[in-house]
Design brief:
mainly alpha, two-stranded antiparallel ribbon, 9 helices, 62% helix, 6% strand, globular
Length: 217
């Protein structure tokens, strides 16, 4: 949670820096969140003076986040199940450890209950003959849900490996529009949670990113 707070602060500062620079006509599109600090060196003397505090704070926050990452990685090694969960590309020590600590026991939930517990299951409006599927419930732990969605974003992004999870999300997002992409991201996050629970329950089974395809052979 402490790391998550720092990440939020970092995002706020980066957005502020980008806003200031764009108001001066400076293109920052080449710089990611990890490399935007390098932009400081090419600024004019006046802008450096005005933005020095923000860049220094950003550097300090980045250092703190890296220290938290090292500590989280160290703690994760105390929980063997986190290594099993990290077989999925897109699930690192942070997501694996958070999932293991919050779920607590692999046999605590069924797959359906796990989706509900993480707040990623859709709500339903049932009345008479009406049965509408609404947005997700957002119940349960907010941090875990947020990290699962981040994992889904990575899986569906350019660096995510080709796998059943990515194919599943792609099929949904191809329905068109930003709403379809949002639904795809949430659906992959929900499926990711269920897959992680299944791996945790069966540590002797190697994760197969192309399980559906290989099963048909």
């Amino acid at each position: 949670k402490a790391r998550d707070l720092l990440v939020k602060q970092r995002t706020c500062i980066i957005n502020a820096i980008r806003g200031f620079l764009r108001s001066f006509g400076i293109d920052d599109s080449e710089y990611s969140s990890e490399t935007i600090n390098q932009l400081y060196n090419v600024l004019s003397k006046e802008l450096k003076q005005n933005l020095r505090g923000l860049f220094e704070t950003l550097t300090s926050i980045n250092t703190c986040i890296k220290n938290y990452d090292k500590r989280i990685e160290k703690i994760a090694k105390k929980y063997p199940e986190t290594e099993t969960l990290q077989q999925i590309k897109g699930v690192g020590p942070l997501i694996a450890l958070t999932f293991a600590l919050i779920i607590g026991d692999a046999n605590r939930f069924t797959s359906r209950e796990c989706s509900s517990y993480t707040g990623l299951a859709p709500k339903r409006d049932q009345s008479g003959d009406v049965d509408k599927q609404l947005g997700i419930s957002k119940c349960g732990n907010k941090l875990l849900r947020k990290l699962l969605v981040q994992g889904a974003q990575y899986i569906m992004g350019p660096f995510g490996e080709e796998c059943d999870l990515k194919d599943f999300g792609t099929r949904i997002s191809q329905r068109g529009g930003s709403i379809a992409r949002k639904k795809a991201k949430v659906a992959v996050a929900r499926k990711l949670a269920v897959t992680m629970l299944s791996l945790w329950r069966n540590p002797e089974i190697q994760y197969d990113p192309h399980f559906k395809k290989n099963r048909k052979k």
